[in-house]
Specification:
Blueprint: H1 2-12, E1 15-18, E2 32-36, H2 64-71, E3 75-80, H3 108-115, E4 121-126, H4 132-138, E5 141-144, E6 164-169, H5 172-182, E7 195-198, H6 209-222, E8 227-230, H7 237-262, H8 269-280, H9 285-302, E9 308-311, H10 332-337, E10 341-348, E11 354-361, H11 366-377
Parallel strand pairs: 2-3, 2-4, 7-8, 7-9
Antiparallel strand pairs: 1-3, 4-6, 5-6, 5-10, 9-11, 10-11
Length: 390
């Protein structure tokens, strides 16, 4: 594993620091883990992808989620590349399936490391689309738990109303094993024949033909385990995305205003602009929060008859390196609504980019969602492994 990591690392730059602390013995014995560099790992600095944190001292203790994994026997390999403070400025990290393409963000290194199979699992975070998107682009399973399920102790904030620790893994089984360690609990409701809604936010959305085919294939496979109905998802994405950004930037400013006041020259352009927007948006927060709360309540009321939702996380595969971290507007509403999400690799497209489909469930139905994902995963087309460049 170590040799593979170092062979890949010069191409994908998924890690910013490596750890040599030996693993313990436990239920996750033998599993290797990357940790997004906004999450504390004892003995390593948390630099948050920022020059403003270049002189950060090593963390004295693990974040709670890291400590749980370490106590369960997982080997913490190191810190993975993140966009600055988990915002949207791209990183030097590259997609292992095509080095000319973005791994997505903000959990860029976590997606790339699992996609290259140099670690078994990686921790990331999602505040808008920051975990599911890199998992989808890099050909990995991405699991965002229900809001508040996993602790945020030792995790640098971006916007605490939305920040969620999640798991990127090689397969659903590994994600489930990690969740059982991080949040052991009873069994969630498991409808014998669940109702599954299949649809997109906008029936007229522009979706790459290969991704339409992925959705069609997953819908067909889902009919073996669920009652499937088809309709557009009942929410207006644009105002939700706008209101989410107001709240996110306002909370980011509240958490990091000192950087803007004291060291703005050390910040990357998009994060600095986000903080400035957050300072200007303080008075608009309340209205935005009301809009998001009303949208969340209305969505789950309309979705009361659906146990499961099948949709797409993004409309096409990873973009070329172009100064962005990819498309996230379809993921932002799901983060606002607070339920669990999981994306599954679904073969490749005509450009040899990983395709992905996504399942969502009501808040609190994390284990039901993982169970349904495991069933659907059995029907997924094979995703060829990323090839190490010569």
């Amino acid at each position: 594993m170590t040799g593979s990591l170092h062979a890949w690392e010069r191409h994908i730059r998924a890690f910013v620091a490596l750890s040599d602390i030996p693993a313990k013995v436990g239920p996750l014995d033998g599993l290797s883990v990357g940790v997004k560099d906004i999450i504390d790992v004892a003995g390593l600095p948390t630099r948050n992808g920022s020059a403003a944190c270049a002189e950060a001292l090593p963390a004295k203790r693990d974040a709670m989620v890291v400590q749980c994994l370490r106590d369960a026997g997982a080997r913490i390999v190191g810190k993975t590349t993140t966009t600055e403070f988990a915002f949207t400025d791209p990183t030097p990290c590259r997609n292992p399936h095509d080095l000319t393409r973005s791994p997505g963000g903000s959990s860029s290194g976590s997606g790339a490391a699992v996609g290259a199979e140099v670690v078994d699992i990686a921790l990331g975070t999602q505040t808008a689309g920051s975990l599911i998107r890199p998992a989808a682009y890099c050909g990995a399973v991405g699991f965002k738990p229900s809001a508040g399920l996993l602790p945020l102790d030792g995790v640098t904030p971006l916007a605490r109303s939305f920040d969620t620790v999640g798991i990127i893994a090689r397969n659903v089984s590994l994600a489930w094993r990690v969740l059982e360690v991080l949040a052991p609990s009873g069994v969630a409701d498991d409808p014998s024949t669940p109702n599954a809604l299949c649809g997109l936010w906008n029936a007229d959305a522009q979706v790459a033909p290969d991704w339409v085919q992925a959705m069609d294939g997953a819908r067909t496979a889902l009919r073996d385990v669920a009652q499937v109905i088809e309709r557009a998802l009942p929410a207006d994405v644009e105002p939700i995305v706008s209101a989410h950004r107001i709240v996110m930037c306002a909370e980011a400013f509240a958490a990091h205003h000192a950087l803007l006041e004291n060291e703005p020259h050390l910040l990357q352009p998009k994060f600095r602009a986000g903080l400035e927007a957050g300072r200007a948006a303080q008075g608009a927060q309340l209205k935005a929060r009301h809009l998001l709360n009303d949208a969340r309540i209305a969505f789950w009321c309309v979705m009361e008859d659906a146990d499961l939702i099948l949709t797409l996380p993004v409309p096409e595969g990873a973009p070329l390196i172009d100064g962005t971290t990819g498309f996230q507007d379809w993921l932002t509403p799901w983060t606002v609504f607070g339920g669990p999400l999981i994306c599954l690799p679904w073969g490749i497209d005509a450009l040899a980019r990983p395709r992905s489909v996504m399942l969502a469930a009501h808040p609190g139905q994390d284990r039901f969602l993982l169970d349904m994902a495991a069933r659907l995963e059995r029907s997924a087309p094979i995703l060829p492994p990323a090839k190490l460049p010569l």
